[in-house]
Amino acid sequence: MVIRRTLHAAESARAVDAPAGAVARAVRRVLGRGRADRLLRGAWLGHPVHPLLVTVPIGAWVCSAVLDVGFGDRAAARRLVLVGLAATPPTVLLGLADFSHLDVPQRRVGALHAVVNTLAAGCFLASTRCGDRAARVWGLVGLLVLSAGGALGGHLSYAQGSGVGRWQEEARVPAVDGPW
Question: So what's the pLDDT on residue 168?
Answer without folding.
Answer: 63
